[in-house]
Structures are given as C-alpha cells and as structure tokens.
Amino acid sequence: MTKTTSSTLPYDIAAILLVAAGLLLSFLLYDQLPDPMPTHFNVHGEADDWTSQPWGAILMPLIALATYAVMRILPGISPKNFAMEAFTNPFYKVCVMITALVVALHIMLIWQLSQGQPGLTSTQVVAAIAVLFIGIGNYINKATRNFFFGIRTPWALASDEVWAKTNRFGGWAFSLFGVCALVFSVTLSGATLVVTTISVGVILIVAIIAYSYVVHRRFEN
After folding, report:
1. Alpha-carbon span 144 to 90, nearest angstrom
2. Is the backbone peptide bond immediately before 36 cis, with ω within 30 degrees of 0?
C-alpha cells in the first residue's frame, strides 16, 4: 500500500472527514429514518430495493471509505514503466472527489428520508455526477501513461504522444459531459433525464475512442 506522506496526508484527512460527516448525520437522524431504508431507485426516482435500517444508515459512507482505500493503493502497485508518482496530487484529488460524491448522495438521502420524503431523485443523482465529471475533466489530462487513471485505450497506452492527446481531448469531453448533465438536471426529469444523460455520455465515449484511434493512425503513418 502507498505510504502516507506529508503530501498525501491532507487527502487522507479530507476523505476521513467526509466519511465521518456522513456517519455523524446518520447517527443524529437515526431515529427518524424508516426501517427498512430505500437504497436503490429506478429512473423514475422510485425505490426498488431496500436495506435494513442499521446497514442502510452506514452503507454509503462505508462504500465511500472502501473506494478511497482501494484507489489509494493504486500508485503503489503501478508497474515501474507506468509509474503514477508524477501526478499523484491530481489523482488523489479525484479520489477525494469520488468520496465526496458518494457521501453527498448519502447525506441527501438521509436528510430526505428523515423528513418523510421518498429519497433521492434522478435530478439530484445526475447533478452530483455532473459535478464529478467536470472535476475529473480538469485532472485526467495531467496523468502520464498508466493502467489506473485516465483514458486508457490500447493506442493511448502504447504511445506517450497518443496518450497525451487522448487525455487532453478526454478531459474536455468529460467536462462537456458534466456541463451537459448539469443543464439536463435542471431542464429535464425522470426517465427523460436519465436516458438523455446516458445517451450523451455514450456518444462522447465513442468520440474519445475514435479520436484516440485516429491520432494513433496519424502517428503511425
């Protein structure tokens, strides 16, 4: 596992504080939560899966913590020729952002359930994901070739030049997706919001892959 250093400690503290905040809210509002708790919602914002109250109150913070812990060790196990040391700060910022996303969804869910509301809406989920993608879009272009972070097409992994161009384009595409999803979250709702957001995401993924291949062919020739 990657050791905690003075440069990584702030990110570790931030992740722990985020998870602690989520758990604290669950503790404070525990008696107001339903049992069982809705923990999964369909595209219409309707609950379609439930979890018993004790686990439902802590599940998402634990997922956030586990996700951060797994991502935290990746720089330490990355192969030597694909080392991540050159961009650990951007990488750890993304790790914290992902942790923040999961905790934010947890906090919204817990608060709404405690107020007698049905739970998360597709608008809230899409808006939170949109902000995450805007954030990630600002950082993936700082990564050098590796197997864990960035746009990792076969052609990008085979060439530093293709990697750089692919991830620069991918960063813009991620940010564009985030902006589009944010706009959709305030103009659309329900299944229309989810389908539209996913459709735009698929189009941009195809565009990134195609761009990476085209760049590869240009350098190859």
Report:
1. 11
2. yes
Please state the pTM of the whole predicted model. 0.90
Which residue, 98, 105, 164, 106, is CA-closest to 136? 98
For the cut 60, the answer to whether the pLDDT of residue 46 exceeds it is yes
Q: What is the mean pLDDT of residues 160-179?
A: 97
Are 94 and 136 within 8 A, CB to CB? yes
Q: Which two tokens stand for residue 209?
A: 């892959």
Worst-scoring range by mean pLDDT, 30-44, 54-68, 71-85, 142-156? Answer: 30-44
Residue 157: what residue type? L
Q: Read off the tokens for 162.
A: 């293709």
Cβ atoms of residues 1 and 72 within 8 Å: yes
Residues 132, 101 contacting (CB under 8 angstroms): yes
| Contact (CB, 8 A) for 51 and 37 | yes
Q: By the 8 A CB rule, do 33 and 9 touch? A: no
Three-state DSSP string of the chain: CCCCCCCCHHHHHHHHHHHHHHHHHHHHHHHHCCCCEEEEECCCCCEEEEECHHHHCCHHHHHHHHHHHHHHHHHHHCCHHHCCHHHHHHHHHHHHHHHHHHHHHHHHHHHHHHCCCCCCCHHHHHHHHHHHHHHHHCCHHHCCCCCCCCCCCHHHHCCHHHHHHHHHHHHHHHHHHHHHHHHHHHHCCHHHHHHHHHHHHHHHHHHHHHHHHHHHHHHHC
| Under 8 Å between Cβ of 207 and 199 | no
If you average pLDDT over every residue of the chain, what do you get? 93
